[in-house]
Amino acid sequence: MSRIILTKIDIVRSFNQQMYMNEYIQQLEERNLLPLTKNNKKLKIIARLCGALFSDGSLYDGSKINNYREISFALGQKEDVEELEKDFKILNYKIHKKQTKGEMTINGRTFTIEGFRVRCASTSLFLLFKSLGVPVGKKTDKKYYIPNWIMNGPKDIKKEFLSAYIGGDGPRVTIRIQDRKKHGGPHNMIDINDIEFYKRTDLIKSGYKLAEQISNLLEEFDININRVFHDKEEFPRKDGSKSVSIHIAISSKVESALNLCKLGYSYCNQKREITRDVIKFLKVIADKRKAWKDLYNKSFELYNKGKTTKEVSETLNLSYETVFGWIKNNKNPTINQHHILYNKWRLENGNSRD
Asked: Are 116 and 97 in contact (CB under 8 A)?
């Protein structure tokens, strides 16, 4: 199988102007970005930036007006800008950053939104990303998919892409305490909002295909997807068209949520901070759940070797009722036996910040 992902021929094909073409190709070659091969040390960065461009970033082509092209990103914090700038420096390109401030009204309340706009006005890098399959222009109005070099690439490349995509359009994982008096009192509730993006109504089918690709990548990292769907409500737009929101609903099971957090959140320090304690806590619970499942398997192993239910319970230091339920009543080891609440755990472990 060829180890070449991109050649200068691909760059030429993606560009409808010949002026300065040799110069753009030379710029990429000098930076060791052409030909782009699977063993290029910069490929992880490129995959990461592609993930960001598929979410909160964009490629802008203003060549019809002033021969201007731009790679831009909307970021939330100074730390995100520094992280992005570090990657661009490794690629040997400069970025320009500007702090932004805007307002958003939700349910009659107006909020001030602060952030950063980062751009790189390089046609050669623009052409590289375009040739690699990054859509140009408003993604809501485009039919595009995750390119094969990522979908069929090694797992580390897929992880870099997902990490940046989740950092932009992906969900935060949070834990709250829910009190259900009829079901044993307070317990941990894992909340994961949907991955969500918009598509023009005539492009819903392509939106589902993109959502399926994202879902397949996530499932490779043992992140369970509940379903893919779109809202029934259609949103009117200024040009007279309408758009809908497509959702990828992610499972809130402990192990799946932990694996989602482990992907990381490239270019989004806020999500990293929010999930820092969540990851530690979910790891504690996942380990306890695994230990409980191991005891379940061990009980059957001992029983099949001739031990009685009572002997199994004594050997494993479990209650007779628990072992009897597993072996005789076919109960699964699904009940949480740890009784650790997240808020209490944070206090006891010195992680009380919110």
From this structure: yes
Residues 30-83: tens digit of each pLDDT: 999 999 999 999 999 999 999 999 999 999 998 777 789 999 999 999 999 999
> Could you tell me if 8 and 131 are in contact, meaning their C-beta atoms sit under 8 angstroms apart?
no
**What is the predicted pLDDT for the residue at 1?**
46
**Predicted model pTM:** 0.91
Tell me which residue of 160, 131, 151 sits closest to 14, measured CA to CA: 131
pLDDT in tens, 196-226: 999 999 999 999 999 999 999 999 999 999 9
Q: Which of 225, 231, 200, 191 has its CA nearest to residue 211?
A: 225
Coarse DSSP helix, strand, coil percentages of the chain, rounded to the nearest 5 percent: 50, 25, 30
Residues contacting residue 194 through CB under 8 Å, at least 6 positions apart: 171, 247, 248, 249, 250
DSSP state at residue 204: H
The string of DSSP letters for 220-273 reads HTT--EEEEEE-S--EE-TTS-EEEEEEEEEP--HHHHHHHHHT--TT-HHHHH
Domains identified in the chain and CATH numbers: 4-136 (3.10.28.10), 138-267 (no CATH), 270-348 (no CATH)
